[in-house]
Amino acid sequence: MTTDSVSTGDDPHRLLSDVRLLAGRVRRDQRLTWVALLVLAAVTLVAVPFDWLFMKVQCDDGGCMFSRRAMLYYWPPALLLAYAAIAVSYVRAARARGLGARVLPYAITGAATAVVLTAAYTAAAAYFPSHPPFGGGPMPFWWIVLDRLIAPWGLIGLALLVLARLERNVPLLLFTLGYLVLVLLVVPTTEGMRLPDWLIPSFLSGTTTQLRLSMTPPQLIAGAVLLAGGIGFSQARRRQR
Amino acid sequence: MTAQTGTPDPSGHPVIGLDEVVHQRVRLGILAIAHEARRVEFGYLRTQLDLTAGNLSKHLSVLETAGLIDIEKGYEGKRGRTWITITPDGNAALAEEIGRLKVLIARVETTTEDR
């Protein structure tokens, strides 16, 4: 762009490419993807001790029943606070650069996921003890995936898809798709991962402790992926500037 | 200059319908940024469009007179800030201009292929 007034006979190709270039620059300047990912990573990693402390485990000769009460006591307020913090950060950063922010639909989606999580886990806690799904037998894979999807780690991914769409951010879209594949199809976020015995110190042995421990690795993996994503996007942004 | 926001006449050449207010590189740039940003500060526009303050003010004034943007002046601390917001008419004019440019490009390409 120049300071001169330009005639209406401007090359339409150039005008269109200018419009696209400027729109792309604005979008890049509005982004604060790394902050969103780091906040979500922090919330995920801080959840680990809460999950351990709030988990209710009852074992008898027939087996163990556990209830992850952090899903109700920790996650809903943590998600609401996280999305509020992300929205405030986006608005402040965009304002400092002289721009408006387009984060509100993401924050609203995030808050909605907290409501969905609360409703789903309240309903499950009330209904499933007396009516175990599939008669207490083995669950089909689609049910497991659905369970993982309405867990906090899956809902974080769903909300990130909305952010990627809002920002028209292809790298974030690819990252989120990878993250969703991981937390929905690969890592047993809701069932837990049994650790090999040699990895568990003797003072942590015992069925209930092992059950609590089994829930930790999936959370650490999800948190580590979000953390790595946050660091990666932060480095990429620094390089762009 | 006035804003023309009517639909393009399919029978006429797309150049006929071009809006002089919008079909100008700097003003088109201002509208594109304001549309994407929702709200944009004067300093950001000046940097991105590489304009002097006086020149940018003139273009903003043309767009404001045409009802395509709103200009809001205020203070942040002791610093004066001017925020520009695109109006619904501005969004419509931008979309229409982009549509006409695409038609124009398509027509030029078709004509070139025919030769």
UniProtKB/TrEMBL annotation, chain A:
<feature type="transmembrane region" description="Helical">
    <location>
        <begin position="219"/>
        <end position="236"/>
    </location>
</feature>
<feature type="transmembrane region" description="Helical">
    <location>
        <begin position="32"/>
        <end position="52"/>
    </location>
</feature>
<feature type="transmembrane region" description="Helical">
    <location>
        <begin position="140"/>
        <end position="163"/>
    </location>
</feature>
<feature type="transmembrane region" description="Helical">
    <location>
        <begin position="103"/>
        <end position="128"/>
    </location>
</feature>
<keyword id="KW-1133">Transmembrane helix</keyword>
<keyword id="KW-0812">Transmembrane</keyword>
<protein>
    <submittedName>
        <fullName>Uncharacterized protein</fullName>
    </submittedName>
</protein>
<feature type="transmembrane region" description="Helical">
    <location>
        <begin position="170"/>
        <end position="189"/>
    </location>
</feature>
<keyword id="KW-0472">Membrane</keyword>
<feature type="transmembrane region" description="Helical">
    <location>
        <begin position="72"/>
        <end position="91"/>
    </location>
</feature>
Automatic annotation (TrEMBL), chain B:
<dbReference type="InterPro" id="IPR027395">
    <property type="entry name" value="WH_DNA-bd_dom"/>
</dbReference>
<dbReference type="InterPro" id="IPR036390">
    <property type="entry name" value="WH_DNA-bd_sf"/>
</dbReference>
<protein>
    <submittedName>
        <fullName>Transcriptional regulator</fullName>
    </submittedName>
</protein>
<dbReference type="Pfam" id="PF13601">
    <property type="entry name" value="HTH_34"/>
</dbReference>
<dbReference type="InterPro" id="IPR036388">
    <property type="entry name" value="WH-like_DNA-bd_sf"/>
</dbReference>
<feature type="domain" description="Winged helix DNA-binding">
    <location>
        <begin position="26"/>
        <end position="104"/>
    </location>
</feature>
